[in-house]
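seq as requested:
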Amino acid sequence: MERAAVVGVLARIARRRPTDILDQASLSSLGLSSSLGLSLLRSNLEAAGGKALPAFDGHTCVADLVNLLANGSMPPVVGTTAEPSGAAGVASLPAGGVAAMPWAGVGLGLDIQDVGSMPLTSDFRSHDFYRDHFVPTEIATAVLRADPRVHLCGIFCAKEAAKKSHPALLGARMNTLVVTHDTAGKPFLGLTDGVLSQYGFQFILSISHTDKFAAAACITIAGGPGVAGGPGVAGGPGVAGALLSRP
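struct tokens:
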């Protein structure tokens, strides 16, 4: 993928003129520092380049992105180590299994997003961003709502909060995390990634939103026994729920 194509995607997402985007500019300096904005950029670059990309953050510069799309590599994200091995870029289990994990225990993740940052579309099922970040059942539920973007923004926050809650989840693809609700509105989080399911994760979710903002909190328990799954993930290990918070 040539530099002009990468800059074209950046210009569209950041709402800048291509001539204003310099190689040394960081994504955060272009207004792309939120998890939603970075996810939107990643999704568009993957669609344009035809290949999956590793995670990057606001410190990543334009030159690094160009090199990534051209050569498949870039410097590690600032303040992190290289992505661990395993399916979907998630950490593999240590030799001693779950009990030997240095980060076994309880973690907490939080996320809040502006609903207006969610892309506008007339077809959520075919849009690159929504197809990359949500599974068909999540989209099918959302399109029945008055404003599907509000519902999907809440789900996005729940997935992002889960990723922030444990090191092994940081590299997980959004569409390997599945949020469902029971008839009372209780949210559940399920994992479709085989490597991640070995960690015995249990999740407690809370999702809230107004018409302008959505937020979620996720408590993650690693290394514990799995519990019964929610709707759509029945019998799956490492799934729990909390009552859905309402504004």
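Residues 77-91, 225-247 have pLDDT under 50 and may be disordered.
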